[in-house]
Every structure is written in structure tokens, then in C-alpha cells.
Amino acid sequence: MAPRLPKQGNVVVAGVGGQGVVLAGNIIADLCLGHGLDVKKAEVHGMSQRGGSVSAQVRFGPEVHNVVVEQGSLQYVLGFEWAEALRWMPLLAPDGIVFASSERILPPAAQRNRVGGDVSYPLEFLEHPGLRAVDAETLAKEAGNPKTAGVVLLGALSTELGFPVESWRDALLRWVPRKALDANLRAFELGRAWKQAAPPKDLRPQRTRSALFRLELEEAWCKGCGICVDVCPERIWRLDDLEVARAATPERCTGCRLCEKLCPDFAIDVVQVQEIDLLTRTGGGA
Amino acid sequence: MTTAKDLLRHEMMPHILCPGCGHGIVMNAMLRVLARRHQNLDKVALVAGIGCSSRIVGYVDANTLHTTHGRALTFATGLKLARPELEVIVVTGDGDGLGIGGNHLIHAARRNVDLTCILFNNETYGMTGGQLAPTTVKQAFTTTSPGGNTEPNFDAAVLAKAAGASFVARGQAYRPDVLEEVMERALDHRGFSFVEVMTDCTEYFGRKNALGLGSDLLFTQSRSDQEVSRDLADWPSLRTPQGWQVRETQPLGVLHEDRRPTFEESRGLPGYSEREV
């Protein structure tokens, strides 16, 4: 069956900095240009290095005037990160399709308290008929390079978007780094094959548990060097008047153990006390 | 599960090391590695010479041997040959292992005795008052080089490799996870394993060279010499045309690994296979 060539359409690629969102947008745009279509592309990046929102909107057709996708007309969303994909759901057309990686990367703002329990993902979109949760991370690892997760999603999109598969491969050939080409082509095939498999039933996050930690201090051993004060990413430790370390906000401990490992005096112990469920926010066993 | 703290002699704590001393961090990493490998340290012997770094064996609940200055490796060689079932770890410093005991280091490496040598390089003689050590880099200030060091320094890892050590690695106190990994591999290796660890002397080296104390000094390990030199720009006497060389950018991790017959194997000495790894 020869694939029908789309006359017009729009795609949004959404993800976080460093995932290759802009590259994926370029590949789609290049593909459309190759078929003689007019293409407009808009990107939002900038303050997104390693972890912030990045998105690329690609609109194509015989003639495109507006670069921005209108509300209710978005046809395809390619979400490289779960929450970033969900951000675009309000713009989705009634028959729009979202390919979202089930990978979850906490946004920096949510990391102000990473202990868990305060972070949850919106669940109301889970019932949307167009939502396809792709375990792109696992497939990309299978392809040989976890960075090819985006190309897995491009593969999944290629089964819906309708351009000939050779054009997709040509576009990949032109854009992906040469040394990662094999892994990317494998990832693309895995993405295409994924569509044929049954969609996963459980769309909930895979990592739903987080641990709580207790900080123990051997006061007599602390010499007040202040290393723990400066290395703690959560700024938990303070030196008191006697130059002894004190955990001022122990409830914010994420268990990274930097203080324990960098304490020259063996004074700090980070003890895991219990696990909690991120979705129900209930505690588990110790 | 055994933790690093379980392996300490609690009656000896707190240790004598100065506040923020990098040696404590390295010791912490070493004990975490040992705690993963052993229930207790009855089958482990720590041999040390003289110096701040060598003092740490006194705080570890293992078979410990505090020997003469620079001669830790010779005692350890004898111990290993007499009791091959022990895991023998030599804890030495740069003054101890390269200055006074440099000769013993190259010959232990040449013989490829199945020892693990952990050399704490704090670029100075800390215990005796911060004198110039063979590892003190050019331009650095010590109590015996008040105008800045004019001599080139040893690269301990390169020296050990050239002398024939079959495993050579370098770690930093600033990166305890890397340190644990190289120590783990050094202990696994059969033959002379040499691990150079960059640590900090806060009271002498850090203070004399205006590198700060505690975490400030520790963080300089993560920075290039250009960055440190920029911070020191308001201290003109420290500036050189080549830039500040105190914190050279050194390669980290496992630098050399090969498998050649150990001293014990090449002599067919008995009891070698009894060691449980």
C-alpha cells in the first residue's frame, strides 16, 4: 500500500533541553521540504539548557502563512518527555494524536523540593483517546544509544504522518551525527514497529516511589569545617555558634549523600527511613 | 550491612586531622569500599609510614602497622610474603612515599608485589609543618619555599607506571565516587596497584597559597588553574606568565592496567591462592 502524501498538517515536538527537540523539528521540516511543501517552523528554546522546556512547531502545506499552531488544530504532538507532551494537550485537535515518551524528567522548579510527595503528574489526560505512551527510553537503549529516544518517536510518527519511509531515512541521514547513524536507524525501525504493538494499558509513571531520609550527626566528631554546608544542593546544613554542623531543614534531604561522603570526620550519616508513593502520597515500609 | 563507620576504632575518634582535611574524605571513601567487600577487616592489613595520611590507619579497626618513615612498602612486602592470605593495603603520603620512601616505591612497583598502595598527595609535608615536598608544584608557597617553589614536581602516577606498577590510577577527594571506583578496581587487581589521590592540606598548603579552607580548598580541585589564577589576580606576586600552576589539570581514573606475573607468582611462593578475593 503506497502511503498517502499529506497535503498539509502540523506537528509539535516538545521536550526538555538536550533531548534533540530542535533536531527532530529540523528533520520533520526537511522531510516536508523534500516533498515540495511550504514549511514554517517555530522554536521555543533559550533558557532551557539541560532541563528547561524546549518545543518546535512545524507547520506544512501548499502555502503556510502562520508559524504558530492554532488552538484546536494541532494534529500531532511528539513528546520527548511526559509532562512536556501533556502541556500541548489543550491545543490538540479532536482527532489529534500524541506520541509521548513515558520518560519523566522533573522540571527545575519542581526540584526545589525533590523529596517526593510534592511532585505529581497530571493524570486527567490519561484517558484521552489520542494519547500514545511510548516507552522510547527502553527502545532507544535497545537500539544501542539512549540518546536516540527522539528518533524512536519519529519512527512512531512516521507510521501516522504518511510520507514514504525512504524520505524519512534520507532526512535522518542528513541530520543525525554520522557516528550515531546506525543506532538512529535502528531506533527509527523500532519506533515504526512499536506502532503495530498494542499500546500499553498502564500509563502511570514507572517511578512512583521516593524515599525519605534521616540525617544523623555525631556531634563530638564534627570539627566545623563547613564542607557539608557548601556541598548540600538543598542547603540543609548550617554551622551553629559553636561551629558544629546542624541540619536546619532535614525534611528537604533527597538522599544524595554528598555530605556523608565528603565529611572528613565521619560525623554525618544519611539513613533511609521509608519509601512513599508519589501518586497516592502514602508511606511504605521502612 | 557493614558501613564505613563500623570499621572505625570508635575509642580513637575523633581523629587528629585538621578541620576540612581531605585525608578524612579519602579515608571515608576507602572504608566504604572495604565495608562493601568485607564483614570485618580481620583479613585486611593496613600498613603506613609516617605522616598525616599514615596516621589514619590508627583509626581503622583492621590489622594495622605503623612503621618507619618511608618504609611502609618494605614492611608491607614482608607482610604479604609471610601472610599471603591478607589483603595488604599501604597507606602513604607524598612525602612518605615519594620523598623519603621514593626508592621503596619504585622497587615495590618493579617487583609487582601484590599490594595496593594508596598515596595521599597533598603536595606538602603536612605533619611536620608544611615544608616543600617532591610533589609541590612550581610557584607554590610552603614554609621552606617562601618565595615560591622553583623546582619541578613529581607526577606520582607516571612515576609508578614507569617503575612497573601493573595498575595505576588517580582520584580526587573532591570526587568520592570516582575514588571509590578506582580503589575498588585497585583492590581487585592482582599485582602492584598504585592509586594517587589528590587531597588537601588546609592548614599549610591551602593557607600559604591563599586557596581557602575547607570547602573552598576542596572545590579548587574541580577548577582549572586559569580559574584559580583569575581569583588570585589581586595577589600579583602569585601570577606567572604561564598562569597559576598549583592546581594542574590532571587526568583522573584508571591510567594504566596490565596483568603480568606478580612477585609471588613468578617465584612460585606457597599460599598465594589462599587469598579470598
Describe this structure in words.
The complex is a heterodimer of chains A (286) and B (277). By secondary structure, chain A is α/β, with parallel strands linked by helices. Chain A folds into 2 domains: 9-196, Pyruvate-ferredoxin oxidoreductase, PFOR, domain III (Pyruvate-ferredoxin Oxidoreductase, domain 3, 3-Layer(aba) Sandwich), CATH 3.40.920.10; 209-277, Alpha-Beta Plaits. Helices cover 27% and strands 24% of the residues of chain A. Chain A has helices at 21-34, 82-86, 136-143, 149-161, 165-175, 181-196, 227-231, 258-262; strands at 9-16, 38-44, 53-61, 74-79, 92-101, 131-134, 209-217, 237-239, 245-247, 268-277. In chain A, helix 1 (21-34) crosses helix 5 and helix 3 crosses helix 4. Chain A is elongated, with a radius of gyration of 23 Å. Chain B has 277 residues and is α/β, with parallel strands linked by helices. Chain B has one domain (4-137, 150-210, 250-259): 3-Layer(aba) Sandwich (Rossmann fold). The longest helix of chain B is centred in the N-terminal third of the chain and has 16 residues, at 22-37. Chain B is globular and about 55 Å long. Residues 233-246 of chain B have low confidence and may be disordered. The interface between A and B is medium-sized, with 19 and 30 residues.
